[in-house]
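Researcher: Go.
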Amino acid sequence: MPSLSRSLVEFIVRPTKTTLRTFNAIILLWASVNIFLGLHAFDPYPYNFLTLVLSWLAIVMTILIMINQQRQEDQNKEVLETILLLSKATQIMLKDQSDSLEDIKEHIE
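Model: Structure:
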């Protein structure tokens, strides 16, 4: 995924104060412009087109969140597999060292 797309996904999926302020400003601007235009408004009250856009945005955000969660699960799985491999390697090394110490102990006695 390109850098711009990833940053856009992060902007939407992990909302910050900036994201929420921007979102609220857009909705406030939408309503203000339509109120100001009065009878010539492109989306008069009850803002059916805005409702459609928000519904579409909710669907897109849901999909992006699910993709992001799947990506995070895959990363967590890789980390756990690496930890398991390191743990097994450590066990083998400790077993070898223990055997070596036993051999040295037997040799000394």
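Model: The first helix runs from residue 3 to 13.
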